[in-house]
C-alpha cells in the first residue's frame, strides 16, 4: 500500500470512529416518553362547587397533570358535602376506573369500607386535602398516598402565629369559625382552637353550617350577629378557604373597618389577595392547593404504570400577609396559588 492510500485509510477510520456513536441507537431511560400515563382512567374529586374558591385551584393542578401525563380524568364536584362525597365515590367506583383521588372529609369510619371494596376490585385510591390515616396505612403499598397539610399541626401553627403577630394576650376574645363536626377535617379547626386557648384567649366557637359551607356569603348574618353580640372580639379565624375569601364582605356588613377585628384564615385566592392588600385580612396560611390537584394524579399514574407505593406529601404551611403578598398575587390571579 502506498503512502497516499494509507493516509486516506487512516483519515477514513478516524471519521468513522466519530460517526458510529452518533449513528448507533441511543438507549432511552425507562418511561422517558411523552404522555406516559395515557390510557389510564382516573376519577378526581376537587372537593367543592365547580369554580368555587380553593376547589378551582385544586382542579387547575389536576388539569395540568392531565395535560402533562396524558390520563383520561373525570372530575366530580361535591360542594364540600361529606355525604355527597360518599355517594359520588360509590358511583365512581361502579365505573371501574384505574384510580380515584378523593377528598378525605367523610373520615375513615365512613369511607374505609367503600375504599376496601374499591381496592379489592383493583382500583387505586389516594387522597388529598384531608387525610384518611387508617386506610392510608392499610393500602400505602398499593398506592394510597396523601397530598395536603398535616391538619392539626397546621391549625395550631396559624393560631400561634395570630397570637404573636397581633399581640394578643390572656383574656382577649377570639372567634373560631370552623368544622369540628367533621372527624378528620375538623382537626385543623381543633388545632387553631387549642392554640388560642393555650395562649389564654377566650374562644367562642361557631360551626360552619351547610349553607355557608357551600356558599360563604350565606354566613354574613352569622358573622354580623356574632360581632354585634360580642363587640370586644379581637380575632376571627375562618377555617375554610371560601370564608377567608369573604372576610371583606363580612367586616363591611358588620360596619367594621380594616383592622378593627383581626382576620386570619386559610388559602389564597384573588379575593383573599385583594383583602390582604386592603388590610381586611391580615394573616393567611397557604396550603398550596394546586399541588393537591397535580400530585394525586401523578400518584395514581406512578402506581398504575410503575407500581410505586403511596407518597405522603405535606404541601406546606407558609404564611401570606402584606409582607409578601406582592410576590404571591400574580400566581393567585392565575389560580395557581
Comma- or semicolon-separated keywords:
single chain, 337 residues, alpha/beta, six-stranded parallel sheet, six-stranded mixed sheet, 14 helices, elongated, disordered N terminus
What is the strand and helix layout of this fold?
Blueprint: H1 3-23, E1 41-44, H2 55-69, E2 72-75, H3 82-94, E3 99-103, H4 107-120, E4 124-128, H5 133-139, E5 146-148, H6 151-166, E6 173-178, H7 186-198, E7 202-207, H8 210-214, H9 220-229, E8 233-238, H10 241-245, H11 247-253, E9 262-266, H12 270-278, E10 283-286, H13 291-306, E11 312-314, E12 318-320, H14 325-333
Parallel strand pairs: 1-2, 1-3, 3-4, 4-5, 5-11, 6-7, 6-8, 8-9, 9-10
Antiparallel strand pairs: 10-12
- Helical run tally: 14
Low-confidence stretches: 1-28
Q: What's the order of the H and E elements?
A: HEHEHEHEHEHEHEHHEHHEHEHEEH
Shape, please? elongated
The biggest sheet amounts to: 6 strands, parallel
Query: How much helix is in the residues?
Result: 40-55%
- Overall structural class, as computed from helix and strand content, comes to alpha/beta
**N-C termini distance:** 74 Å
* Strand order of the biggest β-sheet: 2-1-3-4-5-11
Q: Strand percentage, roughly? A: 15-25%
Q: Radius of gyration in whole Å, from Cα? A: 26 Å
Number of strands: 12
Mean pLDDT: 91
